[in-house]
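User: Could you check the structure of this?
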Amino acid sequence: MDKAHPLSTPMVVRSLDPQKDQFRPREFDEEILGPEVPYLNAIGTLMYLAQSDAASFIQNLCSQTLELDACKKCVSSKPTEYIPELTYSVLFCTYSQAVYGHDHADELSRTARSPGVKQALVVCRDTLFAASNNLSDALSMMEGSKYKDAFMNMKNSRQSLISCSLAFWRFATWDGDAIPTMLLNDMVLMKRLIDVGHYFFRLAIKINRR
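Assistant: Sure, the predicted C-alpha cells are below.
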C-alpha cells in the first residue's frame, strides 16, 4: 500500500430537467445499440472519449517540461486535469525513486570489494534515505495544501544526488570506479522527476494563490 497511487473518483452530476438529464429513460423513437455493438466495446469507447481531453492535457503539460518521457511515464495513468493531483503523482514518483536508490545503494555497499567504492555507497545510501524522508514529508504537506513547503522539501532532496556524486569523486577516484549503473539510473531518473516536479509545483502554487 505504501507504493499505491492515489486515484480520483469522478462525481456524476444529474440535471433536474428530464430533457437535459443524460441518464434519463430511453425515449420512444430513440435509436438503441444493436447486438452488433458489444457492451464492453461501447463502454470502452465512452471511457476513452471521457479521458481523451485529460490525456491531451497531460501530453501538452509534459511537453512544457524538459523531461517529457519521465513526465508521461509518471502521470499518464492519471486521467485528470487537476494540477495539484498531478503534482502529487510526480512527487510520489520522485519519492519512490529515492527509495529505490537507497535500497540499491545499500545492497551494493554490502557486496562492494573496493573500500573507496564501499564508503561512497554508504554515503549515497544515507543521503538517499534522508531524501526519501524529505519527500515523504513533502507528500504529507501536499495533502494539507502546503505546496510551497512541499516544493522546498523536494528541492532539498536534490542535494542527495550531489552528495552521492561527490562521494564517488572523493572516495572512489583512486580505485578507477564510477557510480554503479543500477544506482546511476536511479539517480538520473530521480533528477529528471525533480525537474518535472519543479514545473508542476510552480503551476500548483500559482493555482493555490487564486
